[in-house]
Amino acid sequence: MTTPDSLPTNRLGVAATIPRSKSWPWYHEFIEDKLTSSVKDLLEGYSGIRAEDAESHVYKIVSKPSNVPSFLDYVTKCVVGPYSSICVPTTQLRAARDMAWEIFPWPCIGEFWFISLGLSSHPSYPQLLTHLKSDPTTTLLDLGTCLGQDLRKLVYDGIPASQLQGSDLFAEYEAAGHALWRDEKKFRNRFIAADVFATQGPLADMQGTWDVISIFMFLHVWDLSDQKRACKRILNLLKPRPGSWIIGAQSGSINPRHFPLRPPFVAPGEERSVYRHSVETFREMWEEVGKEEGLALDVWVEYQRDEVSGNEIGEREGGKLLFSGDDNRRIYFLIKRL
Predict the structure, then answer these.
(1) How many CB atoms lie within 10 A of CB 326?
(2) Which residue of 67, 101, 141, 157 has the fewest C-beta atoms within 10 A of its own C-beta?
């Protein structure tokens, strides 16, 4: 169980006090171009939602059950119980996206990136499917799973849910994911509420468990020092044998550097930053961490081929990206133990 001491308040401010304001520039009223044909296909084929109804479903009206505590109660008391897998439609209306926004106002929630199928866009996705299908005991952990879109895509593409697990800091994402994908019964007990940095708890107890770990849009929320710490934790979660994988993508930059965080993600006057890698610095980081852990790693990394500036999370304010610069690029990577 995630404990209050393990919440990332030292990096993003006190989570419970961050306003869930819809006036933040990264809160979008409409989906715009995020609802791609691939997402519509998944909603129809996996969740049984017709393509013409897909957009209205993402705005679908749901309510949180009355026995779910407030987000503040969750953070301060860390209540985790059976409510986490319950979410039913009622006449008391609530938008599914806004349910996730109330959990935490991440830019990926406000900008509808949580329905983006990042894993299946990875150049090595076909290889990953073959790897998972070749042995039914092969397991995958999706760290920073949010509403679990990549896991549902894997199931739709033929991977049994029993081989998959998702983990995120906030337990309430499980209910929001069930609401979005309409799969509470067929995708049960696939969620681990935990902090990757916690030295005790469910993830800490699962060291050496996973054949593949997926980390999409995960590492870039920290500064360089904490990214290295996270990399070591992730390596410890992998099975300690050659051929274990880490696959993912993150926001990067052709000019690597720290970007200062601003309120509401830091307190007024507080100075904290996030680090945006180039492909060179990202490779160097993993090779350095591998050496420190005594592990030989094969690190493949490259920029997204179209390299479109501003195609990442980070709404513009006054013409300037809030969380990165105009030299922003998405980085794909695949890391294997040798």
Answers:
(1) 12
(2) 67
- Residue 253 has φ and ψ, to the nearest 5°, of -155, 145
* Amino acid symbol at 176: A
Give pTM, 2 decimals: 0.82
SS3 content of the chain, % helix, strand, coil (to 5): 35, 20, 45
pLDDT digits (tens, 9 = 90+) for 214-242: 999 999 889 999 999 999 999 999 999 99
pLDDT in tens, 144-167: 999 999 999 999 999 999 999 999
Query: What number of helices (H) and strands (E) belong to the chain?
Result: 11, 11
Measured distance CA(47)–CA(219) in Å, rounded: 30
pLDDT band at 8 (very low <50, low <70, confident <90, very high): very low
Residue type, 59: Y
Report which of 251, 249, 222, 248 is spatially closest to residue 311, judged by C-alpha positions.
Answer: 251
Q: Are 218 and 252 in contact (CB under 8 A)?
A: no
Residue carrying the six token digits 């393509």: 51
Nearest Cα to Cα of residue 171 among 15, 39, 54, 11: 15
Q: Residue 244: what pLDDT?
A: 97
Angle of helix 149-156 relative to helix 37-45, nearest 10 degrees, comes to: 70
Average pLDDT over residues 33-43: 87
- For residue 247, what are the contacts with CB-CB under 8 A and spacing of at least 6? 119, 122, 124, 128, 212, 213, 214, 215, 333, 334, 335
Longest dimension (CA), the chain: 57
C-alpha 266/C-alpha 5 separation (Å) is: 18
Total number of residues shown for the chain: 338
* Residue 203 to residue 237: CA distance in whole angstroms: 8
* HEC profile of 206-227: HCCCECEEEEECCHHHCCHHHH
Give the tens place of pLDDT for each residue, 56-77. Answer: 777 753 333 333 333 333 322 3
The span from the CA of 150 to the CA of 156, in Å, is: 10
Distance from CA of residue 267 to its chain's centroid? 24
